[in-house]
Amino acid sequence: MRSAGGVIERYRDRLPVGDSTPVVSLGEGATPLLPAPRLSERYGVEVWLKWEGANPTGSFKDRGMTVAVSKALEEGVRAVVCASTGNTAASAAAYAARARLPAVVLQPAGAVALGKLAQTLALGARVLEVRGSFDQALAAARELADRGTHALVNSLNAYRLEGQKTAAFEIVEELGGPPDVLALPYGGGGNTRAYVRGFEEADAGMPRILAGEAARRPETVASAIRIAEPAHAAQVDEALRRSGQVVSLSDEAILAAWQTLAREEGLFCEPASAAGVAALASLQVEPGSRVVCVITGHGLKDPETAARLAPPVIAVDPDPEAIAALT
User: Fold this and answer.
1) CA–CA separation, 132 vs 151, rounded Å?
2) CATH number of domain containing 168
3) Helix, strand, or coil here: 193?
4) Where are the beta strands (DSSP E) in the chain?
5) Closest among 238, 227, 232 to 190, alpha carbons compared
6) CA nearest 81: which of 108, 99, 102, 104?
7) Residue 83 is part of which domain span?
8) 261 and 164 in contact (C-beta within 8 Å)?
9) Which of 148, 163, 207, 279 satisfies CB 3.0 to 4.6 Å to 63 for a cystine?
10) Centroid of chain to Cα 9
11) 243 contacts: CB under 8 Å, gap ≥ 6
């Protein structure tokens, strides 16, 4: 059950917080772990979906942001800053608003889905569009943070990974142990590192990890993982050498998994969030394995893609016979 204090209160003894840390929470965490019977039948394994779109701002980022912003407030910074393709921005804006701190968001020009931008603006962040790539925006954010007045709340912030590792704790608690396989999207790599850390700290065994990345990172349709140079690439490679692999995916494979989740399991996520399912679909997994696919963000984050790929709406007269003929 979700608590008012979110993941900090639930896992306080396993997070870098103390009695003097002001908890900035929106009740994040405790997200559903849903069985996926049709995917299970299709792939011959037991599939579960960790639905992180149920977090307060609609993505997994909230788990880490509660810790990052709480620590920023404790450390007395003047504002928070991030570079973002959308989900980090929305989460930073929400938690900064909760903490009564200004939030500065640097977004790469033309690379952010409308739903995420609208959410970030509504939450009061100062959004600046950088004439350049995500990596250039992140470099600028890091330089600003180095001045000491702003806290960088991208996943390079160690507190972010501490909060995000709690999803692994929840999976172990609900399943009674780790899954055989964990499949998730791979953008910057912070979340992959966080899950590895969480399973290590849970001391229940490490699953095989499938990190699904877009083959065409800089221009993929999956905007949330449109990151050319993953900030955590070296650490991810090191972790996955022990247990797992990076799976390169075409946009077609990602979109096919995205449509399957919506139409067969009733879960509407943004395209990038389906990369773990696409990775599972592309590989041979031991029959009967227990697999958890992490679904990282809600579909309303990227309504343009959904509208573009959906069949057109059909106009009809308000006549039962005409309606019946079309159903």
Assistant:
1) 22
2) 3.40.50.1100
3) helix
4) 33-35, 46-51, 79-83, 103-108, 126-130, 150-152, 181-185, 208-214, 244-249, 290-295
5) 232
6) 104
7) 61-156
8) no
9) 163
10) 21
11) 206, 207, 208, 209
pLDDT tens digits, 121-155? 999 999 999 998 888 999 999 999 999 999 999 99
307-to-255, 273, 311 alpha-carbon distances in Å = 13, 17, 8
Q: Does residue 294 form part of some domain?
A: yes
Q: Are 263 and 290 a contacting pair, CB within 8 Å? A: no
DSSP 298: B
Please state whether beta strands 126-130 and 79-83 pair in parallel, antiparallel, or not at all (unpaired).
unpaired
Structure tokens at 26: 């929106």
Angle at 198 between CA 196 and CA 199, to 5 degrees: 70
Using an 8 Å Cβ cutoff, are 278 and 308 in contact?
Answer: no
Q: Which residue has the tokens 């992180």?
A: 52
* 292 touches 179 (CB < 8 A): yes
Tokens of 249: 């995916």
Tell me, yes or no, whether 48 and 38 share the same domain.
yes
Same domain? 28 vs 165: yes
Amino acid identity of residue 74, one-letter, is E
Say if 235 falls within a structural domain: yes
Note whether 105 and 134 are same-domain residues.
yes
CA 266 – CA 88 distance, rounded (Å): 25
**75-113 pLDDT per residue, tens:** 999 999 999 888 999 999 999 999 999 999 999 887 788
Q: What is the per-residue burial (b if ≥16 Cβ within 10 Å, else e) of 169-197?
A: bbbbeeeeebbbbbbbbbbbbbbbbbbbb
Question: What is the Cα–Cα distance from 326 to 312, expressed in whole angstroms?
Answer: 13
Residue position matching structure tokens 């003929």: 325
Q: How far is CA 327 from CA 83, 310, 316, 323, in A?
A: 46, 17, 11, 7
